[in-house]
From TrEMBL, chain A:
Main subcellular location: membrane
GO biological process per UniProt: transmembrane transport
Similarity comment text for this entry: Belongs to the binding-protein-dependent transport system permease family. MalFG subfamily.
Name of the protein: Maltose/maltodextrin transport system permease protein MalG
UniProt xrefs under Pfam families: BPD_transp_1
Keyword Cell membrane: yes
UniProt entry tagged with the keyword Chaperone: no
Record domain ABC transmembrane type-1: where: 67-263
Organism: Kumtagia ephedrae
Topological type in the membrane: Multi-pass membrane protein
GO cellular component: plasma membrane
CDD domains: TM_PBP2
UniProtKB/TrEMBL annotation, chain B:
Membrane topology: Multi-pass membrane protein
Localization, UniProt: Cell membrane
Name the UniProt record assigns to this protein: ABC transporter substrate-binding protein
InterPro entries per UniProt: MetI-like, MetI-like_sf
Pfam families: BPD_transp_1
Protein backbone atom coordinates (compact mmCIF):
# COMPACT_ATOMS: atom_id res chain seq x y z
CA UNK A 1 0.00 0.00 0.00
CA UNK A 2 1.39 3.38 -0.95
CA UNK A 3 0.64 6.51 1.04
CA UNK A 4 -1.29 9.06 -0.96
CA UNK A 5 0.09 11.96 1.08
CA UNK A 6 3.40 10.93 2.71
CA UNK A 7 3.97 14.34 4.34
CA UNK A 8 0.68 14.14 6.17
CA UNK A 9 1.63 10.71 7.46
CA UNK A 10 5.02 11.95 8.62
CA UNK A 11 3.41 14.93 10.35
CA UNK A 12 0.94 12.66 12.11
CA UNK A 13 3.75 10.34 13.21
CA UNK A 14 5.79 13.22 14.54
CA UNK A 15 2.90 14.43 16.67
CA UNK A 16 2.18 10.93 17.96
CA UNK A 17 5.85 10.37 18.68
CA UNK A 18 6.02 13.52 20.78
CA UNK A 19 3.07 12.29 22.86
CA UNK A 20 4.65 8.85 23.21
CA UNK A 21 8.05 10.22 24.11
CA UNK A 22 6.95 12.77 26.67
CA UNK A 23 6.80 10.47 29.74
CA UNK A 24 10.13 8.94 28.73
CA UNK A 25 11.63 12.41 28.30
CA UNK A 26 10.28 13.21 31.75
CA UNK A 27 11.97 10.09 33.13
CA UNK A 28 15.21 11.43 31.69
CA UNK A 29 14.55 14.85 33.23
CA UNK A 30 14.09 13.20 36.63
CA UNK A 31 17.33 11.27 36.18
CA UNK A 32 19.45 14.38 35.56
CA UNK A 33 17.98 16.67 38.23
CA UNK A 34 19.27 16.94 41.78
CA UNK A 35 16.69 15.67 44.29
CA UNK A 36 15.78 19.11 45.69
CA UNK A 37 14.79 20.46 42.28
CA UNK A 38 12.20 17.73 41.76
CA UNK A 39 9.90 19.28 44.30
CA UNK A 40 9.82 22.80 42.94
CA UNK A 41 7.67 24.35 40.25
CA UNK A 42 8.14 22.20 37.15
CA UNK A 43 9.39 23.43 33.79
CA UNK A 44 9.39 21.55 30.50
CA UNK A 45 12.97 22.42 29.56
CA UNK A 46 16.16 21.56 31.37
CA UNK A 47 18.48 24.32 32.51
CA UNK A 48 21.22 22.32 34.19
CA UNK A 49 22.12 18.67 33.81
CA UNK A 50 23.65 16.58 36.60
CA UNK A 51 25.13 13.28 35.49
CA UNK A 52 25.96 12.14 39.03
CA UNK A 53 23.17 9.56 39.15
CA UNK A 54 24.52 7.89 36.04
CA UNK A 55 28.08 7.85 37.33
CA UNK A 56 26.88 6.26 40.55
CA UNK A 57 24.75 3.64 38.79
CA UNK A 58 27.34 2.68 36.18
CA UNK A 59 30.02 2.21 38.84
CA UNK A 60 27.81 -0.08 40.89
CA UNK A 61 28.95 -3.67 40.26
CA UNK A 62 25.80 -5.12 41.86
CA UNK A 63 23.62 -3.31 39.36
CA UNK A 64 25.85 -4.50 36.51
CA UNK A 65 25.32 -8.03 37.79
CA UNK A 66 21.52 -7.53 37.88
CA UNK A 67 21.63 -6.20 34.34
CA UNK A 68 23.51 -9.29 33.16
CA UNK A 69 20.99 -11.55 34.97
CA UNK A 70 18.11 -9.71 33.32
CA UNK A 71 19.60 -10.12 29.86
CA UNK A 72 20.19 -13.87 30.37
CA UNK A 73 16.75 -14.49 31.89
CA UNK A 74 14.77 -12.42 29.34
CA UNK A 75 16.61 -13.79 26.32
CA UNK A 76 16.51 -17.38 27.60
CA UNK A 77 12.83 -17.13 28.41
CA UNK A 78 11.85 -15.40 25.15
CA UNK A 79 13.71 -17.98 23.03
CA UNK A 80 12.32 -20.93 25.01
CA UNK A 81 8.77 -19.59 24.99
CA UNK A 82 8.77 -18.68 21.30
CA UNK A 83 10.12 -22.10 20.33
CA UNK A 84 7.64 -24.00 22.51
CA UNK A 85 4.75 -21.80 21.37
CA UNK A 86 5.70 -22.27 17.72
CA UNK A 87 5.66 -26.06 18.18
CA UNK A 88 2.41 -25.93 20.13
CA UNK A 89 0.69 -23.65 17.61
CA UNK A 90 1.75 -25.84 14.72
CA UNK A 91 0.28 -28.84 16.54
CA UNK A 92 -2.94 -26.97 17.37
CA UNK A 93 -3.30 -25.62 13.87
CA UNK A 94 -2.44 -28.66 11.73
CA UNK A 95 -3.31 -31.78 13.73
CA UNK A 96 -6.72 -33.10 14.59
CA UNK A 97 -6.07 -33.56 18.30
CA UNK A 98 -8.90 -34.53 20.66
CA UNK A 99 -9.97 -31.54 22.79
CA UNK A 100 -7.39 -29.21 21.28
CA UNK A 101 -9.61 -26.13 21.51
CA UNK A 102 -10.05 -26.78 25.22
CA UNK A 103 -6.30 -27.11 25.66
CA UNK A 104 -5.87 -23.87 23.73
CA UNK A 105 -8.27 -22.08 26.07
CA UNK A 106 -6.74 -23.70 29.15
CA UNK A 107 -3.30 -22.30 28.29
CA UNK A 108 -4.58 -18.72 28.51
CA UNK A 109 -6.20 -19.28 31.92
CA UNK A 110 -2.66 -19.47 33.31
CA UNK A 111 -2.28 -15.77 32.60
CA UNK A 112 -5.45 -14.73 34.41
CA UNK A 113 -4.45 -15.34 38.01
CA UNK A 114 -3.95 -12.27 40.23
CA UNK A 115 -0.29 -12.54 41.28
CA UNK A 116 -0.31 -11.66 44.98
CA UNK A 117 -1.49 -14.94 46.54
CA UNK A 118 0.31 -17.07 43.98
CA UNK A 119 3.67 -15.87 45.24
CA UNK A 120 3.40 -18.21 48.22
CA UNK A 121 2.93 -21.51 46.36
CA UNK A 122 5.70 -20.49 43.96
CA UNK A 123 7.97 -19.76 46.89
CA UNK A 124 7.23 -23.18 48.40
CA UNK A 125 7.81 -24.90 45.06
CA UNK A 126 11.14 -23.13 44.65
CA UNK A 127 12.45 -23.65 48.18
CA UNK A 128 10.97 -27.02 49.22
CA UNK A 129 9.90 -29.05 46.19
CA UNK A 130 12.54 -28.45 43.53
CA UNK A 131 15.48 -29.21 45.75
CA UNK A 132 18.32 -31.63 45.00
CA UNK A 133 20.76 -31.89 47.90
CA UNK A 134 22.02 -28.35 48.49
CA UNK A 135 20.72 -27.06 45.18
CA UNK A 136 17.40 -25.21 45.09
CA UNK A 137 15.47 -23.69 42.22
CA UNK A 138 15.21 -20.55 44.35
CA UNK A 139 17.41 -17.67 43.11
CA UNK A 140 18.52 -19.45 39.93
CA UNK A 141 18.28 -18.07 36.40
CA UNK A 142 16.90 -21.34 35.06
CA UNK A 143 14.16 -21.17 37.73
CA UNK A 144 13.09 -17.72 36.55
CA UNK A 145 13.30 -18.76 32.89
CA UNK A 146 10.93 -21.67 33.56
CA UNK A 147 8.65 -19.68 35.86
CA UNK A 148 8.13 -16.85 33.37
CA UNK A 149 6.65 -19.45 31.01
CA UNK A 150 3.45 -19.34 33.11
CA UNK A 151 2.51 -15.92 31.80
CA UNK A 152 4.60 -15.78 28.60
CA UNK A 153 3.77 -19.15 27.07
CA UNK A 154 -0.02 -18.56 27.03
CA UNK A 155 0.61 -15.12 25.59
CA UNK A 156 2.92 -16.48 22.89
CA UNK A 157 0.53 -19.28 21.95
CA UNK A 158 -2.36 -16.84 21.63
CA UNK A 159 -0.48 -14.28 19.54
CA UNK A 160 1.14 -16.88 17.30
CA UNK A 161 -1.88 -19.09 16.61
CA UNK A 162 -3.64 -16.65 14.24
CA UNK A 163 -0.42 -16.29 12.22
CA UNK A 164 0.05 -20.05 11.83
CA UNK A 165 -3.64 -20.59 11.11
CA UNK A 166 -3.46 -17.97 8.36
CA UNK A 167 -0.74 -19.85 6.47
CA UNK A 168 -2.57 -21.80 3.76
CA UNK A 169 -2.72 -25.53 4.53
CA UNK A 170 -2.26 -26.27 0.81
CA UNK A 171 1.38 -25.27 1.21
CA UNK A 172 2.30 -27.94 3.75
CA UNK A 173 0.15 -30.48 1.94
CA UNK A 174 2.03 -29.78 -1.28
CA UNK A 175 5.35 -30.11 0.55
CA UNK A 176 4.23 -33.38 2.16
CA UNK A 177 3.22 -34.77 -1.23
CA UNK A 178 6.72 -33.87 -2.44
CA UNK A 179 8.07 -36.09 0.34
CA UNK A 180 8.99 -33.55 3.01
CA UNK A 181 9.01 -34.73 6.65
CA UNK A 182 7.11 -32.86 9.38
CA UNK A 183 10.38 -31.27 10.48
CA UNK A 184 11.12 -30.12 6.93
CA UNK A 185 7.61 -28.68 6.56
CA UNK A 186 8.05 -26.72 9.78
CA UNK A 187 11.51 -25.47 8.87
CA UNK A 188 11.10 -24.81 5.15
CA UNK A 189 7.45 -23.80 4.81
CA UNK A 190 5.95 -22.61 8.09
CA UNK A 191 8.95 -20.90 9.69
CA UNK A 192 9.71 -18.42 6.88
CA UNK A 193 6.05 -17.48 6.51
CA UNK A 194 5.48 -17.11 10.26
CA UNK A 195 8.45 -14.76 10.66
CA UNK A 196 6.53 -11.51 11.37
CA UNK A 197 4.44 -13.29 14.01
CA UNK A 198 7.49 -14.97 15.53
CA UNK A 199 9.36 -11.67 15.67
CA UNK A 200 6.52 -9.91 17.46
CA UNK A 201 6.14 -12.83 19.88
CA UNK A 202 9.86 -12.82 20.61
CA UNK A 203 9.92 -9.07 21.26
CA UNK A 204 6.87 -9.02 23.49
CA UNK A 205 7.77 -12.08 25.58
CA UNK A 206 11.26 -10.61 26.02
CA UNK A 207 9.71 -7.39 27.24
CA UNK A 208 7.31 -9.11 29.65
CA UNK A 209 10.19 -11.08 31.16
CA UNK A 210 12.40 -7.98 31.32
CA UNK A 211 9.75 -5.94 33.14
CA UNK A 212 8.42 -8.59 35.52
CA UNK A 213 8.66 -7.45 39.10
CA UNK A 214 6.62 -9.32 41.75
CA UNK A 215 7.89 -12.84 41.05
CA UNK A 216 11.52 -11.78 40.70
CA UNK A 217 11.30 -9.79 43.92
CA UNK A 218 10.01 -12.84 45.81
CA UNK A 219 11.98 -15.65 44.23
CA UNK A 220 15.47 -14.22 43.79
CA UNK A 221 17.98 -12.67 46.17
CA UNK A 222 21.28 -12.03 44.37
CA UNK A 223 22.38 -14.64 41.83
CA UNK A 224 19.31 -14.25 39.67
CA UNK A 225 18.02 -10.86 40.80
CA UNK A 226 16.85 -8.81 37.82
CA UNK A 227 17.46 -5.14 37.10
CA UNK A 228 13.74 -4.28 37.42
CA UNK A 229 13.81 -5.65 40.96
CA UNK A 230 17.14 -3.96 41.66
CA UNK A 231 15.66 -0.67 40.52
CA UNK A 232 12.71 -1.04 42.86
CA UNK A 233 15.11 -1.19 45.82
CA UNK A 234 15.34 2.58 45.41
CA UNK A 235 11.57 2.91 45.75
CA UNK A 236 10.79 2.51 49.44
CA UNK A 237 8.09 3.59 51.85
CA UNK A 238 10.46 5.91 53.72
CA UNK A 239 11.42 7.83 50.62
CA UNK A 240 12.24 7.16 47.02
CA UNK A 241 15.54 8.01 45.39
CA UNK A 242 13.79 9.18 42.25
CA UNK A 243 16.96 10.25 40.47
CA UNK A 244 18.75 6.93 40.96
CA UNK A 245 15.65 4.97 40.01
CA UNK A 246 15.10 7.06 36.88
CA UNK A 247 18.72 6.77 35.74
CA UNK A 248 18.63 2.96 36.11
CA UNK A 249 15.34 2.95 34.20
CA UNK A 250 16.89 4.99 31.38
CA UNK A 251 19.93 2.70 31.22
CA UNK A 252 17.70 -0.40 31.07
CA UNK A 253 16.09 1.00 27.91
CA UNK A 254 19.35 0.46 25.98
CA UNK A 255 19.47 -3.38 25.78
CA UNK A 256 15.73 -3.44 25.13
CA UNK A 257 16.13 -0.96 22.28
CA UNK A 258 18.87 -3.09 20.72
CA UNK A 259 16.69 -6.21 20.84
CA UNK A 260 13.78 -4.25 19.41
CA UNK A 261 15.60 -2.74 16.48
CA UNK A 262 17.21 -6.05 15.50
CA UNK A 263 14.06 -8.17 15.73
CA UNK A 264 11.66 -5.57 14.31
CA UNK A 265 13.28 -5.86 10.89
CA UNK A 266 11.56 -9.23 10.56
CA UNK A 267 8.11 -7.63 10.53
CA UNK A 268 7.82 -7.19 6.77
CA UNK A 269 4.86 -7.46 4.46
CA UNK A 270 4.16 -9.55 1.45
CA UNK A 271 5.66 -12.91 2.39
CA UNK A 272 2.50 -14.86 1.64
CA UNK A 273 1.91 -13.04 -1.61
CA UNK A 274 1.52 -15.43 -4.48
CA UNK A 275 2.71 -18.35 -2.40
CA UNK A 276 -0.27 -20.54 -3.17
CA UNK A 277 0.04 -20.15 -6.93
CA UNK A 278 3.64 -21.30 -7.07
CA UNK B 1 -2.86 -37.27 7.30
CA UNK B 2 0.16 -37.32 9.58
CA UNK B 3 -0.06 -39.24 12.80
CA UNK B 4 -1.42 -37.38 15.80
CA UNK B 5 1.42 -38.67 17.93
CA UNK B 6 3.70 -36.04 16.41
CA UNK B 7 1.14 -33.37 17.30
CA UNK B 8 0.94 -34.46 20.92
CA UNK B 9 4.73 -34.61 21.08
CA UNK B 10 4.96 -31.00 19.90
CA UNK B 11 2.38 -29.95 22.46
CA UNK B 12 3.82 -31.97 25.37
CA UNK B 13 6.47 -29.52 26.71
CA UNK B 14 3.90 -26.72 26.87
CA UNK B 15 1.40 -28.85 28.73
CA UNK B 16 4.06 -30.12 31.12
CA UNK B 17 5.42 -26.67 32.04
CA UNK B 18 1.98 -25.12 32.44
CA UNK B 19 0.79 -28.06 34.56
CA UNK B 20 3.73 -27.76 36.97
CA UNK B 21 3.76 -23.96 37.25
CA UNK B 22 0.06 -23.35 36.62
CA UNK B 23 -2.13 -26.12 38.00
CA UNK B 24 -0.06 -27.03 41.08
CA UNK B 25 0.03 -23.47 42.52
CA UNK B 26 -3.66 -23.05 41.70
CA UNK B 27 -4.58 -26.19 43.67
CA UNK B 28 -2.58 -24.84 46.61
CA UNK B 29 -4.41 -21.49 46.50
CA UNK B 30 -7.73 -23.31 46.20
CA UNK B 31 -6.85 -25.33 49.32
CA UNK B 32 -5.91 -22.20 51.30
CA UNK B 33 -9.15 -20.51 50.19
CA UNK B 34 -11.14 -22.91 52.37
CA UNK B 35 -9.14 -22.03 55.48
CA UNK B 36 -8.80 -19.20 57.90
CA UNK B 37 -5.10 -18.45 57.77
CA UNK B 38 -3.09 -15.49 58.89
CA UNK B 39 0.49 -16.76 59.26
CA UNK B 40 1.64 -13.61 61.06
CA UNK B 41 -1.53 -13.09 63.11
CA UNK B 42 -2.48 -14.17 66.64
CA UNK B 43 -3.16 -17.71 65.46
CA UNK B 44 -0.67 -18.70 62.72
CA UNK B 45 -2.28 -22.11 62.06
CA UNK B 46 -4.48 -22.93 59.10
CA UNK B 47 -8.02 -23.59 60.31
CA UNK B 48 -10.55 -25.19 57.98
CA UNK B 49 -13.61 -22.97 57.79
CA UNK B 50 -15.53 -24.38 54.85
CA UNK B 51 -17.02 -21.77 52.57
CA UNK B 52 -16.86 -18.93 55.13
CA UNK B 53 -14.37 -16.92 53.07
CA UNK B 54 -16.64 -17.12 50.05
CA UNK B 55 -19.70 -16.21 52.12
CA UNK B 56 -17.77 -13.21 53.45
CA UNK B 57 -16.80 -11.86 50.04
CA UNK B 58 -20.36 -11.87 48.71
CA UNK B 59 -21.22 -9.23 51.33
CA UNK B 60 -17.89 -7.40 51.23
CA UNK B 61 -18.80 -3.95 49.86
CA UNK B 62 -15.13 -2.97 49.44
CA UNK B 63 -14.46 -6.02 47.28
CA UNK B 64 -17.59 -5.60 45.19
CA UNK B 65 -16.83 -1.91 44.55
CA UNK B 66 -13.30 -2.81 43.52
CA UNK B 67 -14.67 -5.36 41.03
CA UNK B 68 -16.94 -2.70 39.54
CA UNK B 69 -14.09 -0.15 39.28
CA UNK B 70 -11.84 -2.78 37.71
CA UNK B 71 -14.41 -3.63 35.07
CA UNK B 72 -14.86 0.06 34.25
CA UNK B 73 -11.09 0.55 34.07
CA UNK B 74 -10.56 -2.53 31.88
CA UNK B 75 -13.42 -1.57 29.55
CA UNK B 76 -12.29 1.98 28.85
CA UNK B 77 -8.60 1.08 28.65
CA UNK B 78 -8.93 -1.98 26.40
CA UNK B 79 -11.55 -0.47 24.07
CA UNK B 80 -9.39 2.60 23.46
CA UNK B 81 -6.22 0.55 23.06
CA UNK B 82 -7.72 -1.79 20.47
CA UNK B 83 -9.25 1.03 18.42
CA UNK B 84 -6.13 3.18 18.57
CA UNK B 85 -3.78 0.22 18.10
CA UNK B 86 -5.63 -0.88 14.97
CA UNK B 87 -5.50 2.60 13.44
CA UNK B 88 -1.79 2.87 14.18
CA UNK B 89 -1.12 -0.59 12.74
CA UNK B 90 -2.90 0.49 9.54
CA UNK B 91 -0.83 3.66 9.49
CA UNK B 92 2.34 1.53 9.74
CA UNK B 93 1.19 -0.43 6.69
CA UNK B 94 1.66 2.70 4.57
CA UNK B 95 5.03 3.52 3.13
CA UNK B 96 6.38 6.73 4.51
CA UNK B 97 9.84 8.15 5.10
CA UNK B 98 11.29 7.17 8.50
CA UNK B 99 8.76 4.41 9.13
CA UNK B 100 11.19 2.16 11.01
CA UNK B 101 12.26 5.06 13.21
CA UNK B 102 8.68 5.96 14.15
CA UNK B 103 7.87 2.33 14.79
CA UNK B 104 10.73 2.04 17.26
CA UNK B 105 9.62 5.23 19.03
CA UNK B 106 6.05 4.02 19.16
CA UNK B 107 7.08 0.76 20.87
CA UNK B 108 9.25 2.48 23.51
CA UNK B 109 6.58 2.59 26.25
CA UNK B 110 6.51 -1.22 26.25
CA UNK B 111 10.09 -1.48 27.40
CA UNK B 112 9.55 0.70 30.45
CA UNK B 113 8.84 -1.51 33.46
CA UNK B 114 5.35 -1.06 34.99
CA UNK B 115 6.70 0.16 38.33
CA UNK B 116 8.74 2.80 36.50
CA UNK B 117 5.71 3.81 34.42
CA UNK B 118 3.70 4.25 37.63
CA UNK B 119 6.50 6.30 39.21
CA UNK B 120 6.93 8.63 36.24
CA UNK B 121 3.22 9.23 35.86
CA UNK B 122 3.02 9.94 39.56
CA UNK B 123 5.78 12.54 39.34
CA UNK B 124 4.11 14.02 36.27
CA UNK B 125 0.66 14.29 37.84
CA UNK B 126 1.23 15.08 41.53
CA UNK B 127 -0.42 18.45 42.21
CA UNK B 128 1.98 21.43 42.60
CA UNK B 129 5.13 19.54 41.47
CA UNK B 130 3.86 17.64 38.43
CA UNK B 131 4.21 19.03 34.93
CA UNK B 132 0.72 18.00 33.75
CA UNK B 133 -1.33 19.83 36.40
CA UNK B 134 1.06 22.79 35.99
CA UNK B 135 0.54 23.02 32.22
CA UNK B 136 -3.19 22.38 32.42
CA UNK B 137 -3.51 25.20 34.90
CA UNK B 138 -1.25 27.51 32.89
CA UNK B 139 -2.93 26.93 29.54
CA UNK B 140 -6.57 26.18 30.36
CA UNK B 141 -6.91 27.23 33.99
CA UNK B 142 -7.98 23.66 34.75
CA UNK B 143 -7.16 22.37 38.21
CA UNK B 144 -6.14 18.70 38.03
CA UNK B 145 -5.82 17.08 41.42
CA UNK B 146 -5.63 13.30 41.32
CA UNK B 147 -5.08 13.17 45.07
CA UNK B 148 -8.52 14.61 45.72
CA UNK B 149 -10.72 14.07 42.68
CA UNK B 150 -11.77 10.45 42.13
CA UNK B 151 -12.75 10.93 38.46
CA UNK B 152 -9.42 12.53 37.50
CA UNK B 153 -7.53 9.74 39.25
CA UNK B 154 -9.57 7.16 37.34
CA UNK B 155 -9.05 8.94 34.02
CA UNK B 156 -5.30 9.28 34.61
CA UNK B 157 -4.95 5.54 35.34
CA UNK B 158 -6.80 4.81 32.09
CA UNK B 159 -4.64 7.25 30.09
CA UNK B 160 -1.49 5.76 31.60
CA UNK B 161 -2.63 2.27 30.63
CA UNK B 162 -3.42 3.43 27.09
CA UNK B 163 0.01 5.07 26.81
CA UNK B 164 1.75 1.96 28.08
CA UNK B 165 -0.13 -0.82 26.27
CA UNK B 166 -1.39 0.52 22.92
CA UNK B 167 1.97 -0.42 21.29
CA UNK B 168 1.34 -4.06 22.20
CA UNK B 169 -1.94 -3.99 20.29
CA UNK B 170 -0.28 -2.17 17.38
CA UNK B 171 2.49 -4.75 17.13
CA UNK B 172 0.28 -7.84 17.31
CA UNK B 173 -2.21 -6.41 14.80
CA UNK B 174 0.64 -5.27 12.55
CA UNK B 175 2.02 -8.81 12.51
CA UNK B 176 -1.44 -10.04 11.51
CA UNK B 177 -1.89 -7.38 8.82
CA UNK B 178 1.48 -7.92 7.12
CA UNK B 179 0.80 -11.68 6.98
CA UNK B 180 -2.45 -11.26 5.04
CA UNK B 181 -2.53 -12.36 1.41
CA UNK B 182 -2.85 -9.47 -1.06
CA UNK B 183 -5.26 -11.06 -3.55
CA UNK B 184 -8.56 -10.37 -1.70
CA UNK B 185 -7.67 -6.67 -1.39
CA UNK B 186 -6.84 -6.37 -5.05
CA UNK B 187 -10.04 -8.19 -5.97
CA UNK B 188 -12.10 -5.88 -3.75
CA UNK B 189 -10.52 -2.83 -5.34
CA UNK B 190 -11.26 -4.16 -8.81
CA UNK B 191 -14.87 -4.70 -7.69
CA UNK B 192 -14.98 -1.02 -6.68
CA UNK B 193 -15.33 -1.43 -2.93
CA UNK B 194 -14.71 1.68 -0.81
CA UNK B 195 -12.42 1.82 2.22
CA UNK B 196 -15.14 1.12 4.75
CA UNK B 197 -16.42 -1.88 2.72
CA UNK B 198 -12.90 -3.25 2.40
CA UNK B 199 -12.38 -2.91 6.16
CA UNK B 200 -15.73 -4.48 7.04
CA UNK B 201 -15.88 -7.30 4.48
CA UNK B 202 -12.22 -8.11 3.75
CA UNK B 203 -9.82 -7.00 6.49
CA UNK B 204 -11.97 -7.55 9.57
CA UNK B 205 -12.99 -11.17 8.87
CA UNK B 206 -9.37 -12.07 8.12
CA UNK B 207 -7.75 -10.47 11.16
CA UNK B 208 -10.63 -11.25 13.52
CA UNK B 209 -8.72 -14.10 15.26
CA UNK B 210 -5.78 -11.78 15.90
CA UNK B 211 -8.03 -9.01 17.25
CA UNK B 212 -9.78 -11.53 19.47
CA UNK B 213 -6.50 -12.85 20.89
CA UNK B 214 -5.27 -9.30 21.53
CA UNK B 215 -8.50 -8.24 23.24
CA UNK B 216 -8.31 -11.29 25.51
CA UNK B 217 -4.74 -10.71 26.52
CA UNK B 218 -5.22 -7.00 27.16
CA UNK B 219 -8.47 -7.66 29.00
CA UNK B 220 -7.03 -10.20 31.41
CA UNK B 221 -3.90 -8.11 31.96
CA UNK B 222 -5.98 -5.00 32.67
CA UNK B 223 -8.12 -6.96 35.12
CA UNK B 224 -5.08 -7.93 37.19
CA UNK B 225 -3.13 -4.65 36.97
CA UNK B 226 -1.18 -3.94 40.13
CA UNK B 227 2.29 -2.36 39.81
CA UNK B 228 1.48 0.74 37.75
CA UNK B 229 -1.63 1.84 39.61
CA UNK B 230 -0.01 1.01 42.94
CA UNK B 231 2.85 3.41 42.16
CA UNK B 232 0.61 6.08 40.62
CA UNK B 233 -2.22 6.45 43.12
CA UNK B 234 -1.76 3.68 45.70
CA UNK B 235 -5.44 2.90 45.08
CA UNK B 236 -6.69 6.35 46.08
CA UNK B 237 -8.16 8.81 46.52
CA UNK B 238 -10.33 6.80 48.92
CA UNK B 239 -10.89 3.59 46.98
CA UNK B 240 -11.42 5.19 43.56
CA UNK B 241 -8.57 3.34 41.83
CA UNK B 242 -8.36 0.38 44.18
CA UNK B 243 -8.66 -2.20 41.44
CA UNK B 244 -9.11 -5.83 42.33
CA UNK B 245 -5.41 -6.72 42.01
CA UNK B 246 -4.53 -3.96 44.46
CA UNK B 247 -7.34 -5.02 46.77
CA UNK B 248 -5.92 -8.54 46.99
CA UNK B 249 -2.43 -7.12 47.38
CA UNK B 250 -3.55 -5.06 50.37
CA UNK B 251 -5.22 -8.08 51.98
CA UNK B 252 -2.20 -10.30 51.53
CA UNK B 253 0.66 -7.93 52.35
CA UNK B 254 -0.22 -5.39 55.01
CA UNK B 255 -2.92 -7.58 56.58
CA UNK B 256 -1.46 -11.05 55.76
CA UNK B 257 -4.99 -12.42 55.50
CA UNK B 258 -4.02 -15.33 53.25
CA UNK B 259 -7.23 -17.35 53.59
CA UNK B 260 -9.51 -14.53 52.49
CA UNK B 261 -7.03 -13.25 49.91
CA UNK B 262 -6.91 -16.71 48.34
CA UNK B 263 -10.70 -16.97 48.24
CA UNK B 264 -10.94 -13.61 46.46
CA UNK B 265 -8.21 -14.65 44.01
CA UNK B 266 -10.06 -17.85 43.16
CA UNK B 267 -13.27 -15.90 42.55
CA UNK B 268 -11.52 -13.24 40.46
CA UNK B 269 -9.84 -15.95 38.41
CA UNK B 270 -13.19 -17.66 37.97
CA UNK B 271 -14.95 -14.45 36.89
CA UNK B 272 -12.18 -13.58 34.40
CA UNK B 273 -12.33 -17.09 33.01
CA UNK B 274 -16.11 -17.07 32.58
CA UNK B 275 -16.02 -13.65 30.96
CA UNK B 276 -13.32 -14.69 28.47
CA UNK B 277 -14.99 -18.04 27.84
CA UNK B 278 -18.30 -16.37 26.96
CA UNK B 279 -16.53 -13.92 24.65
CA UNK B 280 -14.55 -16.74 23.08
CA UNK B 281 -17.49 -19.08 22.55
CA UNK B 282 -19.71 -16.23 21.34
CA UNK B 283 -17.24 -14.87 18.82
CA UNK B 284 -15.69 -18.13 17.67
CA UNK B 285 -19.09 -19.79 17.30
CA UNK B 286 -20.22 -16.87 15.15
CA UNK B 287 -17.16 -17.23 12.97
CA UNK B 288 -17.74 -20.96 12.55
CA UNK B 289 -21.36 -20.52 11.60
CA UNK B 290 -20.34 -18.10 8.88
CA UNK B 291 -17.69 -20.36 7.43
CA UNK B 292 -19.75 -22.77 5.22
CA UNK B 293 -21.46 -19.98 3.26
Amino acid sequence: MRADRPYLTVLLWTLLSLLTLFPIYWLFVISVKPAVELFTTPSVLLDTVYWNNYVKVLNDSTLRRYMYNSIVISSGNALLVTTLAFMACYALSRFDLAGKENIFFWTITNRMAPAAVFLLPFFLLFTQVFVIGDWKLYDTKIGMILLYCTFNLPFAIWTLRPTIDAIPKELDEAATVDGASTWQVIREVIFPLARPGLAVTLILTWVFAWNEFLLAATLTSFNARTITTGLSEYVTTTGTEWGTMASIAIITLVPALIVFSVVQRQIVAGLTFGAVKE
Amino acid sequence: MRSNRVGWLLLAPTILILAVFGIVPFLYVLYVAFHQWNPFGANPNMIYNGADNFRRLVFDAEFLTSVWFTLKFAFFAVASEVALGYLLAQLFMKDSPGKGFFRTIHTLPLIVAPIVVGSVWRLMTTPSIGIIPYLLNDWFGYDLNIGRDATSAFVITVIMDIWHWTPLVTLTLLAALVSLPKEPFEQAQIDGANRWQIFWHVTLPMIRPAILATVFIRLMDALRTVDEVWMLTGGGPGAATRYVGLHIWKLVFPKTDYGYGSAISVIVLYLTLVMCWLLYVGLVARRDRKRPS
